[in-house]
């Protein structure tokens, strides 16, 4: 097989649930991103269910129209996991029992002190002439096969298993197709609307066809994805990327919080760690989501000490030291109470910064003058208290996200100013 | 064409952006939901870009393996909108200019007082033998074609154009396939591994081809999706579904927490509301995620009062009343401290139930005898304290999910027992 031509690539996602109105294949997004890094593109995606005939047809068509075929899912132990059998059947190859693979799966269960269910035995059957790829995170090994006409790579469906397996085993084997040097960058923005971002950068859309810019917007966060490719070398690609991203950063300024993939909670965490400062949260309508986000970052115990989720007035006054008359006079959803919560949590936990969120996430709980989406976010530091009144649109989940985003962003902007 | 057999159905989404890492086809979710309402299923989905050869290949394969093919997107006026040309080419039919269609498109621009761009002329070309479907919301008409072997329905990509066009023109034409009455049910399970679920129900996989069972597993939660169809009437489908789900429930017992789509936090919330009881959480490694999940449910303030996320020993002893010598002797990640946290939060908030989570979410923080994934979950009620030692696999996010799932499930099982 020649490796210096651009191969046609197809990704097949297997699973009847992916043909329901409720589930989407997301693994292909990761695979495509990694393929793009090699200068490769996917030509087709197919989604097919567990039905054996359909599955065989899909694999058959893909092998005919694409040279490299990734198949994800259907490697599990259950009766409706049929990828292995279907692929063997299309290729007219045998499935062979491998005692060493069986032993590995067995050991995995032993380590977890769980008896191995008999159904897992089928994961030890291997397609003749295929190479097994070790799965560090689950029981189903991956498969790599090269036939005269195709490269076939089979990956388990769970993303936590698929991603490392692709990166460790498949990426190096795909390097032979590397023909374009790619650089990627994502600018993450908060504090601006999508149309505001659009109007700021409208004259900076690249005309060079090796540069690609796409915008992805959701409430509270806008991402600008940049891809730069060069046939010369990666330094050339990087140089063009730098020119483009510098232009965009000049226009968007401090509204860009991340240029290397980090989420806002990570950026804020890094800033705190660098300054050896600490934060605590007082939450109401977010219910713990701010603490959850802050602690999604490994090592966050360096700077995150405490969150008190006080869902009722009583807890706000007892635990967060919000004066009862303030709650009575201004109401729990007010700028006064938000400030008192931020100062309260700062005092009781002796941190440098207290963040507070109080609002109405809906759908219930609104009044004539306090609609769903009204959220006060407050920041308390040494000799510094500030509060924002926000009116967020969206459902409960979106309002919770935007609230936590705004609180984190208030802290980020404050830290930027006081460098 | 006979219409009394179940047709194979495929949905093709056309657009190069749908082969990027950032965008997903979502139109198919809507089409599948509406097809399901007719008792129909999609067998395949294909995503293909604007490349003419790829597009023709995809359409060619689909027409061969499916009887009804929906194609969405690629009907616009630009150079990379090629669905019409590709379909005509595959079917070996001419594209004919239709003056009346041209006039309609022209009028549309006139109404909006915009000059008609010359590129829009191509939208007035019609595949020989096809029927045009009016687009009230855009310039690209839809297409309906019946050939001896296929029904082909082409829809514009924008959801606001696609949805009404499907509902008004295609739904009535698909009614002739309505011959099956469908019922759906999802059993959600926690507390068992996928393999354990599989071994419990392995003899209950339906042999009746009108019943379908598919399993979707992630750490901490397994879903069994059931579909039951009847050619007689919907009462018959319901009766068969009831028999199947009863069998499964008998095998899986109280490990099934939901049969109507609810998540665990909603089930636990409903149980608490019904009993007019309350809960509070003391969290460490979950960082607020338990509170976040509980408060994702509208109206959760009826039963959720407080969560204290104490990320440090100092906060655990000061706010949650965990004795300092216990933290010193057993360590923060221990069954003793988990119990003390659960009892502590219960006392300070005067709730009926205190839930506590303490563990190591990783990747750092482990010791020789306390590995990543070691999590203690505790429940404290009146005269009742229980604690579980868990060893979860996965990354930080998955360990946080499983920890919150286990805590919620402990409360659920306790409430079930004490009905």
Question: What's the gist of this structure?
Answer:
Two copies of one chain form a homodimer. By secondary structure, chain A is an alpha/beta fold.
What structural keywords apply?
homodimer; 419 residues; Molybdenum Cofactor Biosythetic Enzyme, Chain A; Alpha-Beta Plaits; Maf protein; 6-stranded mixed β-sheet; 17 strands
Task: Provide a descriptive summary of the structure in words.
The structure is a homodimer of 419-residue chains. The first copy, chain A, is an alpha/beta fold. Chain A has three domains: 9-177, MoaB/Mog-like domain (Molybdenum Cofactor Biosythetic Enzyme, Chain A, 3-Layer(aba) Sandwich), CATH 3.40.980.10; 181-258, Alpha-Beta Plaits, CATH 3.30.70; 264-417, Maf protein. Helices cover 38% and strands 24% of the residues of chain A. Chain A has 13 helices and 17 strands. Chain A has helices at 27-37, 52-65, 83-91, 99-111, 159-174, 194-201, 234-252, 264-275, 289-294, 313-320, 324-330, 335-349, 396-417; strands spanning 9-14, 44-48, 68-72, 95-97, 125-127, 131-133, 142-146, 151-155, 181-189, 211-218, 221-230, 256-258, 279-283, 304-310, 353-359, 374-381, 384-391. A six-stranded mixed beta sheet of chain A has the order 2-1-3-8-7-6, with helices on both faces. Chain A has a five-stranded mixed beta sheet with strand order 14-13-15-16-17, with helices on both faces. The first copy, chain A, has a four-stranded antiparallel beta sheet with strand order 10-11-9-12. In chain A, helix 1 (27-37) packs parallel to helix 5 (159-174), helix 2 (52-65) packs across helix 3 and helix 8 (264-275) packs parallel to helix 13 (396-417). The first copy, chain A, starts with 8 loop residues before the first strand and ends with a helix. The model of chain A has no long low-confidence stretch (mean pLDDT 92). At the A-B interface, helix 1, strand 2, helix 2, helix 9 and strand 14 of A face helix 1, strand 2, helix 2, helix 6 and strand 10 of B. Strand 2 of chain A pairs antiparallel with strand 2 of chain B.
């Amino acid at each position: 097989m020649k490796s210096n031509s651009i191969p046609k690539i197809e990704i097949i996602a297997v699973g009847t649930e992916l043909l329901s109105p409720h589930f989407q294949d997301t693994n292909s997004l990761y695979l495509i991103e990694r393929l793009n890094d090699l200068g490769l593109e996917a030509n087709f995606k197919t989604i097919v269910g567990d039905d054996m005939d359909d599955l065989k047809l899909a694999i058959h068509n893909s092998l005919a129209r694409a040279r490299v075929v990734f198949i994800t899912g259907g490697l599990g132990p259950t009766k409706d996991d049929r990828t292995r059998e279907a692929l063997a059947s299309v290729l007219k190859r045998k499935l062979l029992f491998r005692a060493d693979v069986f032993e590995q799966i067995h050991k995995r269960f032993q380590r977890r002190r769980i008896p191995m269910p008999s159904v897992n035995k089928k994961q030890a059957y291997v397609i003749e002439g295929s190479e097994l790829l070790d799965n560090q995170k689950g029981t189903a090994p991956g498969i790599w096969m090269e036939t005269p006409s195709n490269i076939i790579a089979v990956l388990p469906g769970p993303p936590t298993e698929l991603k490392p397996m692709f990166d460790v085993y498949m990426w190096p084997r795909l390097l032979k197709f590397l023909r374009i040097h790619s650089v990627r960058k994502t600018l993450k923005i908060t504090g601006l609307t999508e149309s505001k971002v659009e109007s700021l950068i409208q004259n900076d859309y690249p005309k060079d066809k090796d540069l690609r810019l796409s915008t992805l917007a959701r409430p509270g966060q806008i991402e600008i994805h940049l891809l730069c490719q060069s046939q010369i070398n990666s330094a050339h690609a990087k140089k063009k990327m730098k020119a483009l991203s510098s232009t965009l950063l000049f226009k968007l300024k401090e509204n860009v919080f991340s240029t290397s993939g980090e989420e806002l909670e990570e950026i804020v965490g890094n800033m705190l760690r660098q300054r050896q400062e600490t934060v605590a949260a007082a939450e109401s309508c977010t219910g713990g989501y701010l603490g959850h986000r802050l602690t999604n970052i490994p090592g966050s115990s360096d700077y995150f000490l405490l969150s008190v989720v006080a869902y009722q007035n009583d807890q706000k006054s007892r635990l967060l030291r919000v004066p009862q008359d303030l709650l009575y006079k201004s109401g729990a959803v007010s700028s006064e109470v938000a400030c008192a919560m931020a100062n309260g949590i700062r005092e009781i936990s002796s941190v440098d910064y207290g963040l507070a969120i109080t609002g109405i996430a809906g759908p219930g709980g609104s009044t004539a003058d306090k609609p769903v989406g009204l959220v006060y976010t407050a920041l308390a530091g040494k000799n510094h208290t500030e509060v924002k009144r926000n009116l967020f649109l969206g459902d409960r989940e979106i309002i919770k996200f935007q609230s936590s985003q705004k609180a984190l962003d208030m802290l980020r902007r404050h830290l930027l100013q006081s460098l």
